[in-house]
DNA sequence: TTAAAGTCAATATT
DNA sequence: AATATTGACTTTAA
């Protein structure tokens, strides 16, 4: 994503590109606050706030060192190597022997054989990436469009050196100066210490290998319509609260039965890893993967040798949810055992498989769900999670993971009563802007610095620490800046009616197909897949936001009246012209799709 | 302990 | 009503 994102940045994609990271790194130049010469800051921030934050004034040595350390973060990796990998991935398509069980896949998908790019082979679905040579034989999962078996492809492994799953993720270890530099240097030219490195090789090799898939008429819809008809049977809310009763979905029953019978009759499926439907279960006990995997084979660690294209999986999931009017909350809670917010985030910013840790399980569940026949998928939604687990062949979702123990302090007099809700802190505008500005310069401020920041912003140290932690994490995984996220794509398609009706034009279908195509981690993708945190992205981001940041900082500084800063102030004050900034960030109304979104976004901030 | 990863779940936006 | 955002837990690794 990262790399492709960068590469794809187009003229009008600018505003889009900033969308996500904006939250953390951008300041809204149009904000009245900012335009007000920062008067507001003076009111909320202690005087000499920045001074204090500045390493120099405060703890010269300590801060300096910390700043330095931050700068020394591990350099990121092997972007270059990855770039070269791309080409190979294409040519080294795995001959689909491993795809023998594709039939299973066929139950829900059908790879377009005549695709020029993928003439004939489902191999295209396989990842050229070879991370681990030790592969298990019996993985029928390979049949999934979202799973790519990692094979040792003709030398591709040579390129994989730095792309193992555990490739160090590095934050943009910018050689940012400490905040002091921020205060003492000209923001225009050096807002960001890191000078943008030349465009990565990725940037120029956008070779989006897109494989189109057609949704097979699992639901009686002809391939042509691709099952995009909004009229499809959709998920229906249980009448009352006590959902999850099997009986709750009578309309689905028959469908389920049909599906089950067909499924059962499908040889590949029975022998597949793919979970079998509930009833099928009975008639045909889920086969156990007797092999090496000690415990639950179905939930086996397919991570080592199979690669799930999370991005496409999410695209698919998004489509399914939309198409069947399944609320995220329902899907998230019943199928994934996760919260709606988590699902939303996952769908929008799927991390590449190789960078997932325990989070893989969630994606596995998504995968297992889509792997089911339509009827089963829908039926499962009305099942209890336990059943879902069984049906999907998964071990119980990772223990209700972070179930908040809500041991939140109950209000004084309240004893057994419902626990008081956890109040949620919301940064004030100033707090947020300041934190973002600082983050832009120093993603990893020292402890002392954080303490200082906390004091000045009247926040807890932990809060400040959390901010940086979240900011680092979120800026890193940044979604595809240039292209709409899977979910957004879905929404867009619906908006345009491409999906709503079954009688699309050839072009529409084309679009749809493409939209759901499986992109192979090729040139552009490999970068992110293997090296999620590409510098390019960050740099680009910086470039996009530099001026804004500078502006804001100026504002902050402007409010400052500390001794050490005078010089800094002087240098910094000359700020970029607001007009330009706005033009740069807010303009682009022309982009009908989300130009407005961007504007809104900015305005909101 | 600290940091990162994975989420929760309140609440902001659409 | 549904989806997106996001500060802060909880769980894992180091």
UniProtKB/TrEMBL annotation:
Give compartment(s): Nucleus
GO: which molecular function terms? DNA binding
Q: Which PROSITE patterns does the record cross-reference, listed alphabetically?
A: CUT (PS51042), HOMEOBOX_2 (PS50071)
Keyword set, alphabetical order: DNA-binding, Homeobox, Nucleus, Transcription, Transcription regulation
Q: Out of the domains of life, which is the source?
A: Eukaryota
- InterPro entries assigned: CUT_dom (IPR003350), CUT_Homeobox (IPR051649), HD (IPR001356), Homeodomain-like_sf (IPR009057), Lambda_DNA-bd_dom_sf (IPR010982)
Q: Which residues form the Homeobox domain?
A: 418-478
> In its keyword annotation, does this UniProt entry include Methyltransferase?
no
Biased amino acid composition, Basic and acidic residues? 131-140, 577-590
The biased composition feature labelled Low complexity covers 52-79
Skewed-composition ranges (Acidic residues): 535-568
Q: Which residues bind DNA?
A: 420-479
Q: Name one GO cellular component term.
A: nucleus
Polar residues: which segments have biased composition?
1-14, 28-38, 167-183, 190-204
- Say which family it is in: Belongs to the CUT homeobox family.
Supply the name of the protein: One cut domain family member
Q: Which organism is it from?
A: Caenorhabditis elegans
Q: What taxonomic ancestry is recorded?
A: Eukaryota, Metazoa, Ecdysozoa, Nematoda, Chromadorea
């Amino acid at each position: 994503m990262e790399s492709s994102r960068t590469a794809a940045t187009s003229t009008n994609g600018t505003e889009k590109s900033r969308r996500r990271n904006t939250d953390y790194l951008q300041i809204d130049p149009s904000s009245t606050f900012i335009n007000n010469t920062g008067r507001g800051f003076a009111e909320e921030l202690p005087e000499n706030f920045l001074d204090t934050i500045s390493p120099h004034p405060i703890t010269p040595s300590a801060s300096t060192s910390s700043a330095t350390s931050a700068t020394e973060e591990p350099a990121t990796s092997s972007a270059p190597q990855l770039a070269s990998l791309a080409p190979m991935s294409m040519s080294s398509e795995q001959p689909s022997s491993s795809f023998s069980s594709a039939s299973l896949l066929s139950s829900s998908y059908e790879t377009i054989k005549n695709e020029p790019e993928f003439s004939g082979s489902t191999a295209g679905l396989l990842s050229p990436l070879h991370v681990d040579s030790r592969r298990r034989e019996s993985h029928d999962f390979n049949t999934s469009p979202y799973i790519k078996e990692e094979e040792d492809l003709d030398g591709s492994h040579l390129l994989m050196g730095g792309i193992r799953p555990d490739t160090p993720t590095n934050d943009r270890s910018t050689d940012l100066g400490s905040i002091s530099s921020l205060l003492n240097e000209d923001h225009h030219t050096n807002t960001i210490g890191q000078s943008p490195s030349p465009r990565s090789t990725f940037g120029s090799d956008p070779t989006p290998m897109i494989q189109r898939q057609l949704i097979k008429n699992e639901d009686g819809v002809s391939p042509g319509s691709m099952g995009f008809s909004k009229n499809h049977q959709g998920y229906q809310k249980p009448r009352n609260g006590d959902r999850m009763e099997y009986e709750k979905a009578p309309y689905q029953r028959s469908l389920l039965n049909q599906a089950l019978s067909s499924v059962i009759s499908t040889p590949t499926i029975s022998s597949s890893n793919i979970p079998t439907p509930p009833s099928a279960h009975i008639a045909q006990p889920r086969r156990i993967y007797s092999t090496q995997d000690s415990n639950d084979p179905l939930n086996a660690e397919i991570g080592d040798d199979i690669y799930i294209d999370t991005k496409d999986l999410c695209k698919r999931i998004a489509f399914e949810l939309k198409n069947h009017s399944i609320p995220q909350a329902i899907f998230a809670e019943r199928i994934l055992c996760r919260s709606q917010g988590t699902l939303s985030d996952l769908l929008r910013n799927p991390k590449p498989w190789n960078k997932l840790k325990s989070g893989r399980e969630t994606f596995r569940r998504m995968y297992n769900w889509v792997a089911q026949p339509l009827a089963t998928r829908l039926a499962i939604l009305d099942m209890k999670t336990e059943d879902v687990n069984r049906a999907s062949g998964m071990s119980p979702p990772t223990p209700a993971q972070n179930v908040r123990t809500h041991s939140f302090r109950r209000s004084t007099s309240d004893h057994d009563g419902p626990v008081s809700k956890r109040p949620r802190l919301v940064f004030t505008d100033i707090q947020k802007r300041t934190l973002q500005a600082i983050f832009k310069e120093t993603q990893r401020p020292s402890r002392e610095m954080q303490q200082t920041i906390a004091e000045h912003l009247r926040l807890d140290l932990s809060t400040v620490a959390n901010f940086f932690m979240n900011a680092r994490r979120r800026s890193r995984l940044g979604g595809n800046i240039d292209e709409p996220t899977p979910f957004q794509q879905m929404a867009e398609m619906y908006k345009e009616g491409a999906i709503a009706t079954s009688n699309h034009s050839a072009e529409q279908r084309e679009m749809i197909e493409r939209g759901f195509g499986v992109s192979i981690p090729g040139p552009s993708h490999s970068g992110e897949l293997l090296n999620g945190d590409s510098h390019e992205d960050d740099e680009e981001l910086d470039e996009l936001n530099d001026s804004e940041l500078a502006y804001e900082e100026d504002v902050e500084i402007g409010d400052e009246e500390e001794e050490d800063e005078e010089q800094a102030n002087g240098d910094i004050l000359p700020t970029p012209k607001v007009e330009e900034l706005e033009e740069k960030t807010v303009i682009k109304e022309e982009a009908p799709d989300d130009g407005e979104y961007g504007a809104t976004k900015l305005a909101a901030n």
